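Minimal example, chain plus iron/sulfur cluster.
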Amino acid sequence: MKTPDASASDPPAGTPALELSRKAGGQEDGRLNGSSPEGRFFSKLDVLRCDLCPRRCLIPPQGRGACGVRGNLDGKSHIPWYGFVTALARDPIEKKPLYHFRPGSSILSIGFAGCNLRCPFCQNWRISQLRGREKPPGRYLEAEDVVALALDDGGGPPGGPFDPPQIAYTYSEPLVHPEYLLDCMQLAHRKGAANVLVTNGCVTQEAADEIIPFVDAVNIDLKSFSRQTYQKTLGGDLDTVLDFIAVCYENGVHVEVTTLLVPGLNDSEAELKSAAHFIADLEASRRGRVIPWHLSAYHPDWHWDVLPTDPAALLRAAEQAREILPYVYAGNIAGEAETRCPHCGKTLVSRRGYRIDTGGLTLKDAEYDEEKYYCCASCGKDLSVIVY
Ligand code: SF4
């Protein structure tokens, strides 16, 4: 006879209860001990892993990584964008921006396609974002052609910027094309041209180690000082970028850093202060070698329609950063920027837009080798803050 409170699903009296809890060794997750029968409807794929950036994409055959440029063709690595140049121009070096490397010079600038980040306010998204978009206009150029163009003095007007042979890899992310970059950079060095990298700095240590020996100057985007912003909004990794800045600096590359101030995203006083302290701590490790910081005005683009950076707020942020760092510049706004001699305080370089006056500098040949170096035209002291 049933007891009054027994339910219909209860096991009959005397049946041992099945233990289903994980604690009791149950298998809610399946037969994890490998005793299951073989599954059907699977294919063995030659998936490749790209170790160039921290995304470390697993790329199936006929697929592309998140940057859209590195792929897998029938199980083999595939870089169809090798040598595809989307932009080619001779720019003032201040446009990179580099303010303390060969001021007043012009530089051959080449741009590529694709990027490993997804900054929703990207100002070059037409060439940086490839997924689901048409191939951007451009053409293939051999590394030899790029270097030959850099060696040509460009026939600039008398009295214009001087033209030491130098190449900037810029506009969209150059580091997703390391094979082409290395071919150009190594040849450039053999022919006596300098290499300038303008990058998001988001590559693995093993890739950085191969490229940095051929880089003379770099401008690195420090897009935020928040791990969360890098991960969730930009698709990158803050620690990787900080490591890249440090490794470039420690290896003797001339380093400048740029932060685009996007209102409400990365412009809090606390965040900017943390970034400034990071740069200052690096500088303190090698006294004398400065890392100029460019705080740059954002304007709405691509998926981001927040109002542009207020110029007054930008100037205020630059002023506050100067309490921590000696060389901070406000960029992308009207106005003048100057660099003063750390010894006598006289103006070394003044800039109004891209009109650059380097009258406060003297460029001298070193006595015992082919190096050149800058001195202050006023007090005559050697300058370590401006490099050739
Ligand atoms: S470089 Fe491109 S393919 Fe390689 S891991 Fe990064 S996003 Fe993926």
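Residues 1-27, 155-159 have pLDDT under 50 and may be disordered. Residues 269-285 form the longest helix (17 residues).
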